[in-house]
Amino acid sequence: MLSILFLLVGTILAAASANPIALLPSYANPTTAHGQPGRGTISLTQIRNKAFIRNGPLDLAKTYHKYNIPLPADLAAAVARHRQPSRPKRSSDAHGSAETTPGPHDVEYLTTISIGTPPQNLSINIDTGSSDLWVFSAETTSSEVKGQTVYDPSLSSTAAQLQGATWQISYGDGSSSGGDVYLDRVALGGLTVAAQAVECARNVSGEFTADGSSDGLMGLGFGVINMVKPVRQKTFFENLQAGLDEAVFTADLKHGMPGRYNFGYVDSSAYTGDITYVPINSTDGYWGWTSPGYAVGSGAFKDEAIVGIADTGTTLLLLPSDIVADYYRQVDGAKYERNQGGYVFGCDVALPDFAFGVGHTAGGSPAMIKIPGKYVNYAPVGGSSTKCYGGIQSNDFIGASIFGDLALKAAFVVFDGGNMRIGWASKALP
Asked: pTM, whole model, 2 decimals?
């Protein structure tokens, strides 16, 4: 949801030119380090949303908007045809552990957090591709509240306005969200940050207003891209790290069934084999990393540095256009359709697996994360029962690759803030 992705790409290109090693993964040794839940841990289990709907063009467009990139003409036209009315609010309460609810289009994983004293419960979207905790609030223009629960700092005895501080996030469609900033108690599961910056919206982008199920967003990127001015604020995870058993959180998202986020430990039962860690490039605030290459189906591994971002707030897997074209050349009847803004194919066609490399094992070859072909069959197009939209699409105009939920659901992923690295492991897949 940030306007600086081109800075990310520029930094990548400049650093790679000056120091080619800086952004390529080192020969990271796999690790079998295991953690067990302790006092400084929380576990967030997803709840199935029976009403969720997928829409390929809309979900691709959300990624462009998020990174403040104007829509290509083809995609803009497709979005205009696929617009849907607002959806009703879904209730969600947390009792003990926090609950996470998959949202419409498989984009949002809504988690109940508590803000203030006494606690006010809101459902927010956990997003590793941004760095702001912002919520609908009592200050939000009334016409922009469409069923969301709002945070009211005047009802919290621990809320204190951060005088002179404001925030604003601009999106690729020209809209923006912004408002004031308060410091207040924020609790996720059983862990609390006593004075977390909570960005209270005065105005909200129409894309968020239309989603009555989401009360805001919790960014788990890095504070360097936090949008509060004049002084950037730390993210919830950055503030929480000192209270965690380990300065990590993990994403164990699933395809077609509930998944889990854990904070403070690595669940050794959640993956198979080893976790392969590679260093991250957080210069531009993202969980940026580089894959050494890929393979399609039973084909040979192809060396090609894929510079990208691990982003739980993006649904699809966005890759360089040559890789995307290589994949769909192996899908019978697949083609790029301008009126859909992406690749489509027959819904009943067999799809090859897609695998991407992570670091290097002791033997020198990269560890591989395999995305089953069935995951790539993302959604029927426009109510069609015969034509489907691909979950792998081009990152043209965005610049960096985006390892969204399509990739994350195929792996167990460790976001290690203490050691500034990201770990990927295979797991049993449904």
From this structure: 0.86
